[in-house]
Amino acid sequence: MTVTFPRISTPAGPVPDGAAPWNRQRHSQLPSHRYADVYARVEVPLAERDWPTRRLTAAPLWVPVDLRDGNQALAEPMDPARKRRFFELMVAMGYKEIEVGYPSASRTDHDFVRLIAETDLAPDDVTIVVFTPARRDLIERTVASIQGIRNEVVIHLYTATAPVWRDVVLGRGRDELTRLILDGGRDVLEFAGDLPNVRFEFSPEVFNLTEPDYALEVCDAMTALWQASPERPVILNLPATVEVATPNVYADQIEYMHKNLARRDSVILSVHPHNDRGTGVACAELAVLAGAERVEGCLFGNGERTGNVDIATLALNLHAQGVDPMIDFSDIDEIRRTVEYCNRIDVHPRHPYVGDLVHTAFSGTHQDAIRKGLAEHRARAATESRPERDIAWRVPYLPIDPADLGRSYDAVIRVNSQSGKGGIAYLLESAYEVELPRRLQIDLAGRVQQHTDDSGDEITAAEIWAIFQDSYCVTAGDATIELAGYETSESEGRGRTRIVLRARGEEHVSSHDGVGPVEALTAALTALGAGIEVLDLHQSSIGPGSDSDALTVVEYRHAGGVGWAAGRAGSVLAASLAAVIAAADLAEREPALTS
Ligand SMILES: CC(=O)SCCNC(=O)CCNC(=O)[C@H](O)C(C)(C)COP(=O)(O)OP(=O)(O)OC[C@H]1O[C@@H](n2cnc3c(N)ncnc32)[C@H](O)[C@@H]1OP(=O)(O)O
Ligand SMILES: CC(C)C(=O)C(=O)O
Ligand SMILES: [Mg+2]
């Protein structure tokens, strides 16, 4: 079948100015000239910056906005049951400040706030945030919705401040917009200023494209109006409503505000990155280095367009650096199931920390390293007499221990055509507790590779085990030579083994003195013209416990070359004899394969 890509053609423009001779890329057809870089759109004020040399040493205050910003981005906004389930999850995880909705937007949002007011759904130590635009009627409705809530409440007022929004959306110049915002601030004070449990938050929406002096002017005006004080601090939340720049630019913008805001000790500096460029997490992390103390975002990054910043990734990034995120992720799969149910959006299998595949290696050298790393981890725990969950984690390719998140090691290694012997051995060890010698691992890996190359699919432990059995074991019905019986006895201080072989319908009985049963069997086979030389014999068991089967694998030489065979039985001796018989049988039937 011919596949054509009619709308894509190889760029064939002139060599770009200054291109290095080793770079043969050409100009594309994309009209990139239509877009201006961030420096042309907004002044980035900072000349001297402290954030690059700072370190993340403590968790900021996390504020999940899934029930508002995440919810407003859903094709089907959450129904009351979903909102409640999500809220309960956040409380259980340890979030202490939660934006619960936009009460003037919809009945569901309003009723959910009322539910909080009228029940004990929200523990006393959880602050409830409600969101409103700077419109008097909507502010009034918002304040009405929070009546009776005993918890601390934050009223979050927002208005866009960036030039395009001023010109195109709101139709107001800077001064006019400041008046609108202050009017909104005054309305908030009029309706809620006397409520002792209420604090205020202001967001200059699209802060990241707002002139820094204007952002500062509006924010300072709001903290003055609301009389921000250390006892009643005001939250100034500085959103990258649409992410437009590299994270260092956002960090500069935040540090500028951090250093220049009035009443800084009465301001909780908050950030709210979105993820349009895919760098929302980096923006939040650099913003915290730059002075932010509070981060708004969504669990696993739901939200408008490409989403809000993912506060689960942010928290677990801290965990992976040895900093307690102060939020419980010990059952991440349960958290994911709840979030998927509430949002009706699946989490991507590659999503950091939570995706189905993020603790899984398919590739051979990674598997080899992980298998060795896990073995080293177990051994070190035993040497130090400490629990595996407690000692330092240094398993290659796994940034954190999946067990921290309630995950098992079952999916850490999965096998396909990119895998190698280490991964295959790991699967057999995990599923059957079978340890194979290294050279047999290499032989088995070749057979598994042939299978996965043919199928193109992943292969399970059970399928690998089936390949193992097909390749190295001989079942009674298929055998060309059978061990019909054996007996060991003692005569005049010497061991004697009686062997009964059945081949081509005939029985052959022989007795062997002074040798062990395995040697006796190889001698009997040689007498029958089916001789093999046992080069190596490896005994182990299948599965744990005393009632597990014994497994013996032998490496043998025969006329056609060297091969492997295996026997499984209730006793070590029976398994060893079965392995030797299997070797003779395989040598007879498949000399080419085993060479
Ligand atoms: C970045 C963010 O996430 S902002 C939050 C966005 N979230 C939402 O919009 C979800 C909930 N929203 C809603 O349910 C509705 O938009 C409502 C109830 C708030 C308002 O609905 P409507 O009254 O029908 O107005 P509409 O949705 O068209 O909003 C646009 C109007 O609000 C004005 N406006 C927009 N934002 C603000 C603001 N923050 N402060 C004051 N006015 C604003 C616009 O200028 C426009 O005014 P105009 O009609 O005079 O031109
Ligand atoms: C905080 C508000 C205004 C917001 O969601 C945003 O700007 O993205
Ligand atoms: Mg937002």
TrEMBL record:
PANTHER family according to UniProt: 2-ISOPROPYLMALATE SYNTHASE (PTHR46911:SF1), PTHR46911
Keywords: Amino-acid biosynthesis, Branched-chain amino acid biosynthesis, Cytoplasm, Leucine biosynthesis, Magnesium, Metal-binding, Transferase
Any one Pfam family match given in the protein's UniProt record, by short name: HMGL-like
Job description of the protein: Catalyzes the condensation of the acetyl group of acetyl-CoA with 3-methyl-2-oxobutanoate (2-ketoisovalerate) to form 3-carboxy-3-hydroxy-4-methylpentanoate (2-isopropylmalate).
Localization in the cell: Cytoplasm
Gene Ontology MF term list: 2-isopropylmalate synthase activity; acetyl-CoA C-acetyltransferase activity; magnesium ion binding
Family matches, as HAMAP family: LeuA_type2 (MF_00572)
BP GO annotations: L-leucine biosynthetic process
Binding site for Mg(2+): D69, H272, H274, N308
Primary site of residence: cytoplasm
Region (Disordered) residue spans: 1-27
Keyword Transferase: yes
NCBIfam families the record matches: PRK03739.1
Positions of the Pyruvate carboxyltransferase domain: 60-333
Protein name as it appears in the record: 2-isopropylmalate synthase
Name of the coding gene: leuA
Pathway(s) this gene product operates in, as recorded in its UniProt entry: Amino-acid biosynthesis; L-leucine biosynthesis; L-leucine from 3-methyl-2-oxobutanoate: step 1/4
Catalyzed reactions: 3-methyl-2-oxobutanoate + acetyl-CoA + H2O = (2S)-2-isopropylmalate + CoA + H(+)
Superkingdom, natural source: Bacteria
GO cellular-component term (any): cytoplasm
Subunit structure: Homodimer.
Family named by the database record: Belongs to the alpha-IPM synthase/homocitrate synthase family. LeuA type 2 subfamily.
EC numbers for this chain: 2.3.3.13
